[in-house]
Amino acid sequence: MFNVTPIGSCRIYAPLRLSTKEYGFKINVKRVYGYSHSLGEILQQADALFNDFQPPEYLWPMISSRSDLATFSRQAHEKSNLYIIELSSAKNVKIGNYYVQLNYFNRHFKDFFSDAARARTFNGLCTRDNPSELEDFLEKVWIDTPEHQKETEILKQVRVTLSTEDELYEGICDLQFDLENTLFVSHVDVKTNNENKLKARHEFIKKVTSAARRAEAALYNPTALMEKFGQQNAIEDYSTSFAHFTESFSKEVFADCYKRNIRDALEESLLESPEENINDMLVPHTRSILETGDPELVEELGDLLDAVEGYYPENIQIKEMQLDKAFYTNEIDQIKRVLFRLIFSCDLSKYKGKLDNLAQISQLESWLGEIFTINSIPNTSMPVLKKLANLAGASEMAKSASFPR
User: Domains along the chain?
Assistant: First the structure.
């Protein structure tokens, strides 16, 4: 199957989780230890896919919410066909040499952050270059118990930075080089109740967009789809954090992203190793799409099959899928075109598809009559043509030891 690895938040996980079965794809999250939002987290996560990653155990709850460190360390990540990477936060939170996830970090130190004034002062000091100010502050406010003293030793190491456009550009370039097949995704540019943009988010989306353009990277921005869908229908926590997609919008996001980006990535993967990938990726994708019964998806599938067949006109599996699709849509002219291409372009001795459906076509005997007037019928097609003649009830044709040439 076509394997996709998400690196980001629930805004890319949910669309994938809800749609991969429908599209015949597979989510590959081996050695993906949790959600990521900032550039620092994403670069760290991407590196951890293939390289040793052993943060101190006390940091693990601030990095991952999915599994214990020992379980993660035993996992191996096989390279995916596509990495979907969401850049949604400018804020990088680092403790020592490791980036932590802000939500996990705040949850881990919930008692410390329960005081709003203390939290504001701490957050301001973390962004400064002088760590002694942060240390002095913590020594005053958070050493009254042994547990707080222990936490203070960790909090002293916290540094917060905001990603610049140049840093985003360099990071995107690094990710493209290391992971090869990538699709970047921005946050959604919502409006508040008073119709204003969230300023920090809006500015960060602009930086991500500019950096991706400079890096010539594929980028998907769900904002236009959200505006079409309606923000109140698209955003689950409308009027609060504007962070989560509704289930219906998540499905629409994947469908839109598939049309704009993922289908092209699938096509590129098929071209990289056609003999293997047509069977492993295109066949399950075709079957899954036809099972949905969605006319729009089936039409898009036809475009994909036509594109791949253009590269590999002699591949018999593509013709089989073209036939399946034509039968599904009941396009008689398309069935005829595919059948003729199958007979004259492929080695039919390797054909494993079902021919019985063709018996339902009233025009089959007429089509065979056209075929038999052509002098260039491949010898490998003869056994199949005889079977077709039997199915069509053309007994004289079927009995003939050799067809007219």
Answer: 2-255 (3.40.50), 274-399 (1.25.40)
Distance CA 116, CA 118 (A): 5
C-alpha–C-alpha distance, residues 234 and 219, integer Å: 20
Tell me the residue type at 66.
Answer: R
Give me the helix-helix angle, 199-214 and 165-179, nearest 10°. Answer: 50
* Kind plus residue range of the DSSP H or E element containing 188: none
Give me the long-range contacts of 261-268 (CB less than 8 A, separation at least 24): 261/183, 261/218, 261/220, 262/4, 262/82, 262/183, 263/300, 263/304, 265/81, 265/82, 265/181, 265/183, 265/218, 266/2, 266/81, 266/82, 266/304, 267/304, 267/307, 267/308, 268/181
pLDDT tens by residue, 30-45: 999 999 999 999 999 9
Strands (E), 187-259: 219-220
pLDDT at 392 (0 to 100): 73
Query: Whose CA is closest to 382, among 263, 390, 302?
Result: 390
Q: 159-183: per-residue pLDDT in tens? A: 999 999 999 999 999 999 999 999 9
| The pLDDT of residue 10 | 92
Number of H helices, E strands in the chain: 23, 8
DSSP 354-383: --GGGGG-TTHHHHHHHHHT-TT--GGGHH
Positive/negative CA dihedral, 216, 222, 49, 77 = negative
- Amino acid at site 69: L
Give pLDDT, residue 398: 47
Strand partners, 173: none
Residue 89 and residue 160 in contact, taking contact as beta carbons nearer than 8 Å: no
The encoded tokens of residue 252 equal: 């629409």
Q: What percent of the chain has a predicted confidence (pLDDT) above 90?
A: 63
Environment class of 138 (CB within 10 Å of its CB; exposed 0-12, middle 13-18, buried 19+): buried
Give the chain's residues under pLDDT 50.
398-399, 401, 403-405
Angle between helices 295-311 and 316-329 in degrees, nearest 10: 150
